[in-house]
Every structure is written in C-alpha cells, then in structure tokens.
Specification:
The protein has 8 helices and 2 strands, in the order αααααααββα. It is mainly alpha-helical. The protein has a domain at 56-140: Glutaredoxin (3-Layer(aba) Sandwich), CATH 3.40.30. The chain has a two-stranded antiparallel sheet with strand order 1-2.
C-alpha cells in the first residue's frame, strides 16, 4: 500500500475486521496444522517479494481492543500512524496486540492522548464503528485478510503482489477518468 501511495493519489480508509472473533469455535487441529505448515512459505514470500522480515504475533488472539483503539486514534487524527504501528507490532515484532499494555505503549509512541486511552476502549461509539465495519465486510463477502476494496467495486483478497494491485488501481483510475 505504501508503494501504491508513492505512485498514485490514493485515499486509504482502514476498516475493522476480525478473522476469528471472540467466541468463534476452536480451529480444527488439521486446519491449524496447515496454517503452521504454510508459515515458512509466507515468511519467504514476504521477504523475497515485499522485502519484509516477518516475526508474526500469536494466533488466536482477540483483536477487538486493537480495532476499537484504532477508531479512537482516527478520531484523534492519528489513525494511519496507529494502524501502521499496530500492524508492525504484530507482524514484525511478534507482539500480542490483545495486550492492553502493548496497545497503550503504541498509543503513546504515535502521540495519542493516553490519559483517556483506557476509557476509549469501553466507548460504545467506537465499538459500534467496529461493528459497522465488520458488517460491511460481511456484505462484501470478505473472509480473508488482507482484503482491499477499490471504489466499492473491486475486491482483492489475500496478500497480492504489487503488480496486481497496480493493475486494479490503474483500472479504477481509467474508469474514473472516462
């Protein structure tokens, strides 16, 4: 996404989504084994195709507080910075982003007013915004992460090479200009 933003004038709006929300049935052992078996390939692909050295956080965590905190950060004008910091914490530093202490540290690092941070996690408005985003994702039929929606028309699910995303952006731009 960062590379796309360097080459195109994009407005990126991060939305909440929980792949496995709290209360989901446990993952079947064979499914969990497939995920674990595919991790070396994921790490290699991230390194070779995207130049990212991943150190993935724990599986099976509840990301709800991180999503609510993201809504608080957006309201404070720090949404993009907070979102990136949380993603980096999970995908590159292997932190458990369901840890409220970790979220508080990230909030402080990006310059959020942390005096109200803890109470923001219990804010019904932010929780409703998360719920609304998740309902929107369900309407799009999203069931993978990452998932990208361009101009409410094109859906791209899963990690994709830059060239795939570039083609979608160029198609959208050509349609907008026509």
């Amino acid at each position: 996404m960062e590379k796309l933003q360097q080459h195109y004038d994009l407005a990126i709006h991060w939305r909440s989504y929980q792949l496995r929300p709290a209360g989901s049935p446990p993952m079947p052992p064979e499914y969990l084994a497939r995920i674990k078996a595919s991790q070396p390939m994921l790490l290699k692909k991230a390194r070779e195709q995207y130049g990212l050295e991943l150190h993935v956080g724990p599986m099976g965590i509840d990301s709800l507080h991180a999503l609510i905190a993201d809504k608080y950060a957006e309201q404070q004008g720090k949404g993009a910075q907070f979102h990136k910091a949380v993603m980096d914490a999970y995908w590159q530093q292997a932190y458990s982003i369901d840890d409220l202490g970790i979220l508080q540290e990230i909030a402080q690092q990006v310059g959020l007013d942390t005096t109200h941070f803890a109470e923001s996690l219990a804010n019904a408005r932010y929780a409703q915004e998360v719920k609304d985003d998740i309902q929107m994702a369900q309407q799009y039929g999203l069931d993978a992460v990452p998932a990208l929606v361009f101009e409410d028309k094109y859906v791209v699910m899963g990690a994709q090479p830059y060239d795939v995303l570039k083609r979608v952006v160029e198609r959208v731009l050509s349609e907008v200009e026509a």
